[in-house]
Amino acid sequence: MEQLVKDAGSGSRDTMERIRRIFIESLHLNLREEDFSYEAKLDEAVGLDSVAVLEFVTAIEKEFGIVFEPEKLTIVLVRDLKGLAAYVDSRTALRPNHSEHSA
Amino acid sequence: MATPEPSRAVAPASNPNSKLLATLPLFTLNDLLWLLYLFPIRFLATVLPRWSLYAIAKLSNPIIQFDARRSKARAIPWIEQACRATPAHARRIASQSVSNTMLRTLDGLLLLRPSWEKMLRCTGVEGMQHLESAIARGKGVILLAAHLCANRVALRYLAAQGHAALFVHNQQATNKAQGRFGSRFLQPRNAQILKRANPDHVTIQDPDSSLRVMQRLRAGGLVALQIDARGGTPVEPLFLGVPWRVRGGIFEIVRLTDCAVVPMLCVGSISGFRIRFDPMLEIDRAPSRETFLSANLPRFLAVVERHIIENPEEWRLWNNW
Question: How many Cβ atoms sit within 10 Å of the Cβ of residue B52?
């Protein structure tokens, strides 16, 4: 997990950790955060039930207080943990009260 | 579009990955009919007028009815019970449902022609105000309809009128009369044709199908989605008097997107087709998945049942029973 997060080029470490946690919770997976491959598990979950990904996306929105732009709701973005974290960070930065929270 | 899948028909006979595939006959009469439809008739449909396609349909109707004889025999007692019909009337409904499915399938080929609007006329749209008020909510609209024969044509017409709806389609729909040849080669070919006839389309087998639905709804658009779309928890309520497997997917989408749901009825005829939108469904916005499903499932099913009872000969699934 540590290594995964360190390799991230874009999304912040904290965001990726939170997304992984949301992923486990929203899909009701019985896993520990450090011992699964995000992409493989996402593919598995979506392959079984493509509606599951909606629960995951809405849980991210709720957690970070953001709304995905419609054109960003793609499996390509959701599958890419780094890209997803970067997108979440960029949306979070646009929130009107973001600076107050960061301060 | 629209109705749930009978619990008895859950076995994915047309799923190439299924072990059941190996138990199917290599080639059936149904495969032959689909082969004729997908190749010679499809080519003829690019040049022939609609009436001549219908003449071909009339000539081939006895063979189509023969091919459907077993499923019709199973459907007749159900139709009697669900529609309170006499045995003779139920037989007529079963036969007419088979004929209408064939005619509307031929209409599907006409959609491939640039001049399709001249050949497939809309004879009326009722209740447009219901659709417009649902769109005005700004959270997208799911068009809820039964598996009626004219749905595809109606959706294409609506798109041409500026109300494009993303059509969610099951690429591996059960066809019990199909053999291995049909399942492996003809069904994928038919899926390609359906996609050409209605490019605004996603199959439930696509991993991003739910995200595309959400994308469209978030943009305030329309989605024609079946109540039996895959995904979500399966439940088995009574539907038209029989236990019927319904997946919770559509309910999850409505719960998570807060979209509106408008019942849509599309009825075909020799002269064209007509569309009716009913008032927006009142949705109980229960917070959890389970409570949302149990609160809203009866309303959704009641609408679909009502549409089928009003137009039993237009429902394609009697013969899937």
Answer: 12
Chain B neighbors of A71, CB-CB under 8 A: 215
Q: What is the pTM of this model?
A: 0.88
Which residue stretches of B164-320 are H helix?
A: 180-181, 187-197, 209-218, 249-257, 289-310
Residue A89, SS3?
helix
Question: B311 vs A16, A22, B266, B269, B304, CA distance in Å?
Answer: 53, 46, 10, 12, 11
Q: What is the complex's ipTM, to 2 decimals?
A: 0.81
H/E run at residue A2: helix A2-6
Interface mutation vs chain B, best among A39, A54, A56, most B CBs within 10 Å = A54
Task: Read off φ and ψ for residue B315, nearest 5 degrees.
Answer: -85, 130
Q: What is the pLDDT of residues B5-26, one digit of tens each?
A: 444 333 333 444 567 778 889 9
In chain B, which residue ranges form alpha helices assigned H by DSSP? Answer: 29-36, 42-44, 50-67, 69-83, 87-110, 116-119, 128-136, 151-160, 180-181, 187-197, 209-218, 249-257, 289-310
Q: What is the rounded CA–CA span in Å between residue B177 and residue B175?
A: 6
- The residues facing B124 across adjacent strands are B274
* Cβ neighbours of residue A31 closer than 8 Å, sequence gap 6 or more: A24, A41
* DSSP notation for B102-120: HHHHHHHHHTTSTTHHHHS
Tell me the per-residue pLDDT of A46-103, one tens digit each, with 9 for 90 and over: 776 778 899 999 999 999 999 999 999 999 999 999 999 999 999 999 887 665 444 3
Q: Which residues of A touch B230 (CB under 8 A)?
A: 49-50
CA dihedral over A32, A33, A37, A39, signed as positive or negative: positive
Which chain A positions have a beta carbon within 8 Å of B206's beta carbon? 50
Q: Do B230 and A43 touch (CB under 8 A)?
A: no
* 3-state SS assignment for residue A81: helix
